[in-house]
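Hi V.,

Quick status before I head out on leave. The structure for the redesign project is tokenized and pasted below; the design run finished overnight.
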């Protein structure tokens, strides 16, 4: 049996492919995509990964996939405007879990303007983000 070395899965850089892979209710599927993206980060400019993530967000219907994607954005919000803007957009997501991850991503950006968005999101949520539906839509 020959050992076959496989390179990184570059199809994940396509927003539609990434969205299709993340559009799952299984955290195991979301984690598998996360692991593949972390491997890609070793050899691909982070800008390309951030672009794929931001392009995939509006295409994902399942809250688990959107939450996983927004969690992955945390790494990119500091340097990439598109990732930051997607995290800000996710503050208004219909899923509580996605909104929680969006708060983390906006906070991780370290941008002063992010505080304004976090305060507005808190006010929309009635003063707090805890309790409620546990992430479901």
């Amino acid at each position: 049996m020959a050992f076959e070395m496989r390179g990184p899965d570059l199809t994940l850089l396509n927003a539609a492919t990434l969205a299709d892979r993340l559009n799952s209710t299984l955290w195991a599927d979301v984690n598998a995509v996360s692991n593949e993206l972390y491997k890609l980060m070793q050899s691909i400019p982070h800008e390309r990964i951030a672009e794929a993530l931001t392009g995939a967000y509006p295409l994902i219907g399942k809250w688990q996939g959107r939450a996983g994607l927004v969690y992955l954005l945390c790494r990119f919000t500091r340097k990439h405007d598109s990732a930051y803007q997607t995290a800000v957009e996710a503050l208004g997501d219909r899923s509580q879990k996605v909104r929680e991850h969006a708060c983390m991503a906006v906070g991780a950006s370290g941008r002063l303007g992010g505080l304004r968005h976090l305060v507005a999101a808190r006010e929309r949520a009635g003063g707090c983000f805890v309790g409620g539906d546990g992430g479901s839509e």
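Above is the designed sequence. The CA atoms of residues 6 and 108 lie 33 Å apart.

G. will cover questions while I'm gone.

Best,
W.
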